[in-house]
Design a protein that fits this description.
189 residues, alpha+beta, four-stranded antiparallel beta sheet, 2 helices, 9 strands
Amino acid sequence: MSLRWLDIKTLFSHKGSSGVTLVELLVTMSLGSLLAVATSQVLTQVYVLTPKAENSMQAIHQVQKAGYWIDRDGACAQTITPTPGFFTLSTSTPLVISYVDWEANKTTITYAVDDNRILQKQVVIADEVTGSVISSNQMQVAENIASITAQYNQPDPENPRKILTVTITSQLGSSSETRTYKITPRIFY
C-alpha cells in the first residue's frame, strides 16, 4: 500500500508551476513584518531605555557614596557645625565635623557642594595641643548632587544625644534619587 501524500518527491514538486503563489507571498511578508517589529522593539529598548537606566543607577551610586562618607565621619564626630538647626550645604554653608583621636590629633572634616554640583570633602589633621597641621587633603566625594540638606538637633528632650539627619539628592538627566541618613555621633561620658 503506497501513501502518495507522504511521498517527498510529490510533496515538493509542482509540475507545471512557475513561481510563487499569492498565499505564499503574503505569508512570507507577514513573517518578515513580525520580525521587523520585534527587532524595532529590541532596538528601542537598547537605545532609549538603557541611557535612562544608566542615569538612574549613576544617581543612586552618587547618593550612596555621599551618604557613606558623611555617615562614616558623622559617627566619629564629637562636634558638628553649624549649630543645631536646618541648613543646606553649599560652599558658603559647609558641614563641619570634628573629633580628637587617641593620639591627641584633631581631625576636622568639611563637606561642601560647589557650583559644579560636586560634593567636596576636605580633611585637616592637626595637633590639638600645638595647633600645627599634620596633614591636609581634599577629595571629591560625589558628583551630580542637586541638594544636601542637614538638620542637627535633639529630637527627644529626655535623650541628650543629638541626631544629624542628612537628606541627599542626586540628579542626572531626568533621573533623580533622594536618600535620608540619620547619624548619631559618638558620645563621651
